[in-house]
Specification:
heterodimer; A: alpha/beta; five-stranded parallel sheet; B: alpha+beta; five-stranded antiparallel sheet; 26 helices; 22 strands
């Protein structure tokens, strides 16, 4: 079972998305701001992080940069989630080190595809040395 | 004897030389005048033959003729003129008179009296020369002269007279002046002159006589007269007639010209005074030559305070303005004209003014060079312009604020909407999971209404971003085929909802394009969803082709349907924001009315455009044209935004729209009465409207018109 870290400050979005991921068989851990997200990533060792970009305390871009700098966390795929459907946001997210990007409101099917894509890559990588 | 002595005394007293010859022409005696005149003695003279006198100096052929031929045949002869050059006394003109006398015992004697007229003859010759000379002068004088005697008869006239009045000598000389030329000189004024004025003075000048002569017409004559004592001719009146007809005419013309000039000057002065903008005429030393009424009124000054003053000294130095000095001393001397020099100055009396100065250097005749300085008071105009600029700035600011507000609001709206969509979706899943199937349709309605609301909000956000100049394009290279698959997958449910058939035709090798995939996708979805919405049980076609025009590769996405079509008016408003075909359409079909406007803006941002044409009640065709490789430059402003472009797009007028689509339009209406008005409307809007007959023909015309496009 994959463990997904959801960093999201909006309670309803957090509740909704975590419940839907849970119902799809994922284990979900929660953080409500960038800093706690950073701590959680280090302590909980998630397989993937869903990162809201507009976060209090430490914003998603900065949190992503630090995660990608951390030796313990740099391999964890991050999907940026943002309400700003601006072209620049996508670039900025990728620049910060995000592996994928999706806009809110979440279209669950599309997001699941992206999650599965990234996790599948990890799985195949994880399996390749053994193969 | 005493008697003889007496007569001898008389002979000697006579002052003219006398010579008494006997019949043999020997000198009997001479008188003392003879001896004195010819410087000879008695001894050299008496008893000598006349021809031998003074060594033969009297042997003169003419004298011989006289003495030997003339005298013998007559007892007396008079004034025989003898010209001879004597050795001692020189050339002499002698007037010889002879008498034959019975001299008693002396027999017959010839008394030869010699009158020496040398001097007289000389002075007579001189006189003649003078007279000829005078006559020549008189003849040479170009003005007619008439010489009258005291009885006013013409003594003579000069050539000029004869020529001027076209008369001859004989018609003139010795005629009374009044009778000349059949009485044409019998002029009352002339009579008054000759009979009243002349007798009382010896000279009079410039008596002007205006008279119409039968032959030569109306003349203006300037008469000058002199009374002269003309020697033996007695008193004469010289009447000089100067024909000043031409001169008078010229003078009149000059006077008229001067009057005209004066009138023009007055006229121009009046104009200058009438001109509502203040004018100042300066001389080259920058002193005021004159000013017009507007100047005095505008600046509340008088003539006296102004004229001949240095401009800088006017009104206690209120015109001593550095900018004006620069203008008058630096700019004006180097140019003969300058325009619209703007001068802002606060005048003591009239306050702050914005003046537009215009100057012309003029050659003002005898006034020398003048500088005309026209001052247009544009204070009010400038104020108005500033107001307009401020108002425009305020309006633009308000518009930006509105756009920012909409952008922010739509973001705020999306957060709760996300929750609505998410939870309704979740409830739907859970209802299915727990087999509470009867909840599902309602949950689906909540979800679909939420999706609709979200798309409206997204459209508003996009338009706001465009209007706020914040819309950016993100270019990437993507596979067109995949995009089409994606789009068709998304739109198919909507197409099928109205029982429409969708046919997709793509060129074999569409390949990739470099553009903003999100905007291309959204544009295609907009057009396809429109077609799906406005077509029922019809056909929707999507044709994707690569085209090359002007050496550039384009991707054409043609979306056509067999839907309700549009009227000309609807087509004209089609791409305007918040404008669906009409309000009833919005009620019937929903939508924000932003879709097409956004689609067009998106395409324009990428350097492309959207074309449309439609046949009411039959079909609509939209074509998206986007460069295969979109360049950053044309869509983006220098600051990285598309502000200027989108402002232009936002302010698109109907006319602007016209230039982008529909050069040719076909109007179809089964009601023949509608054909005329529609054609007129379309033509007035700049469309070419091909002639069309029945429906079958119209289809072909429509097709060919579409081909042209």
């Amino acid at each position: 079972m994959f463990k997904i870290l959801l960093v999201e400050d909006n309670e309803m979005n957090r509740d909704m998305l975590s419940r839907r991921l849970l119902s799809r068989g994922y284990e979900v851990v929660i953080a409500v701001d960038g800093e706690s997200g950073l701590a959680m990533a280090n302590s909980a060792c998630p397989s993937l992080i869903l990162m809201d970009m507009s976060l209090p305390v430490l914003d998603g871009w900065e949190a992503t940069r630090r995660l990608k700098d951390g030796p313990q966390t740099k391999h964890i795929p991050i999907i940026a989630l943002t309400a700003h459907a601006m072209a620049g946001d996508r670039e900025r997210a990728l620049e910060a080190g995000c592996d994928e990007y999706d806009t809110k409101p979440i279209e669950l099917g599309r997001l699941l595809q992206k999650i599965e894509g990234l996790l599948g890559a990890i799985t195949s990588k994880a399996h390749s040395p053994a193969a | 004897m005493p008697l003889e002595d007496f007569s001898q005394d008389i002979v000697n007293t006579v002052r003219e030389p006398l010579l008494m010859l006997d019949t043999t022409l020997r000198v009997h005696s001479a008188n003392s005048a003879f001896y004195q005149t010819f410087h000879v003695t008695r001894e050299e003279t008496e008893k000598r033959l006349i021809y031998e006198l003074g060594n033969g100096q009297w042997d003169i052929p003419a004298l011989r003729t006289l003495l030997e031929d003339v005298v013998p045949k007559s007892s007396v002869f008079n004034d025989f003129e003898l010209v001879h050059t004597f050795p001692v006394i020189g050339r002499r003109v002698m007037l010889l008179n002879a008498r034959k006398l019975k001299a008693g015992n002396h027999g017959e004697l010839l008394v030869l009296a010699m009158e020496d007229v040398t001097e007289r003859r000389r002075s007579e010759a001189d006189m003649l020369a003078v007279e000829t000379y005078a006559q020549n002068i008189v003849d040479t004088v170009r003005e007619p002269l008439l010489i009258l005697d005291t009885s006013l008869r013409v003594r003579s006239a000069n050539r000029a007279f004869y020529q001027t009045f076209q008369v001859s000598n004989t018609e003139t000389e010795y005629h009374l002046i009044y009778e000349l030329g059949n009485g044409q000189w019998d002029i009352p004024d002339l009579r008054r002159l000759l009979e009243d004025v002349v007798p009382k003075s010896t000279v009079f000048n410039d008596f002007e006589l205006v008279h119409t002569f039968p032959v030569i017409g109306r003349r203006v004559m300037l008469l000058n007269a002199r009374r002269l004592q003309a020697g033996n001719h007695g008193e004469l009146l010289v009447l000089a007639m100067e024909d000043v007809t031409e001169r008078r005419r010229a003078e009149e013309e000059v006077a008229k010209a001067a009057a005209d000039l004066k009138a023009i000057e007055t006229f121009s002065e009046n104009i200058v005074d009438t001109v509502r903008e203040p004018l100042l005429m300066l001389d080259t030393t920058l002193r005021v030559h004159s000013a017009n009424r507007a100047f005095y009124q505008t600046f509340h000054v008088t003539h006296e305070e102004t004229e001949d003053q240095l401009i800088y000294e006017l009104g206690n130095g209120q015109w001593d303005i550095p900018a004006l000095r620069t203008l008058l001393e630096d700019i004006v001397p180097k140019n003969s004209v300058f325009s619209d020099f703007e001068l802002v100055h606060t005048f003591p009396v009239i306050g702050r003014r914005v003046m537009l100065l215009n100057a012309r250097k003029l050659k003002a005749g005898n006034h020398g060079e003048l500088l005309v300085l026209a001052m247009e008071d544009v204070t009010v105009r400038r104020h108005a312009e500033e107001e307009v600029a401020r108002a425009k700035e305020t309006a633009e600011e308000a518009n930006r604020t509105k756009s920012m507000f909409l952008a922010n609001m739509s973001h705020e709206l999306r957060t709760p909407l996300n929750a609505i969509l998410g939870y309704s979706e979740m409830l739907q899943e859970e209802a299915e999971l727990h087999e509470i199937e009867n909840f599902v349709p309602d949950l689906q309605r909540i979800h679909s209404a939420g999706k609709h609301l979200l798309s409206l909000i997204n459209d508003i956000l996009d338009i706001s971003k465009i209007e706020a100049g914040k819309m950016e394009i993100y270019l990437e290279t993507f596979d067109v085929g995949s995009l089409i698959n994606d789009v068709v997958g998304t739109i198919r449910p909507l197409v099928e909802a109205n029982d429409n058939a969708l046919a997709v035709r793509c060129d074999d090798n569409l390949g990739t394009m470099h553009a903003d995939i999100t905007k291309v996708r959204q544009s295609l979805l907009n057009l396809l969803s429109n077609s799906a919405k406005f077509t029922k049980q019809g056909q929707i076609d999507l044709d994707v082709t690569r085209q090359t025009t002007d050496g550039r590769e384009w991707m054409w996405f043609r979306v056509s349907d067999t839907g309700i079509g549009m009227t000309a008016e609807q087509l004209l408003k089609l791409f305007q924001t918040f404008s669906q075909a009409d309000a009833s359409t919005t009620r019937k079909y929903g939508g924000s009315g932003l879709g097409l406007a956004l689609t067009r803006r998106f395409c324009q941002l990428m350097g492309g455009d959207v074309d449309v044409h439609s046949i009411l009640g039959e079909s609509s065709t939209f074509v998206i044209k986007v460069p295969v490789v979109v360049s950053e430059v044309p869509a983006l402003g220098s600051d990285g935004t598309v502000a200027s472009h989108t402002i232009t797009a936002t302010s698109d007028s109907v006319d602007d729209e016209m230039t982008h689509f529909g050069h040719t339009m076909l109007s179809l209406d089964d009601d023949a009465t509608q054909a005329g008005p529609m054609r007129r409307f379309l033509t007035s809007e700049g469309f070419a409207v091909p002639a069309a007959g029945d429906v079958e023909d119209d289809r072909s015309v429509a097709l060919s018109a579409a081909e042209v496009r």
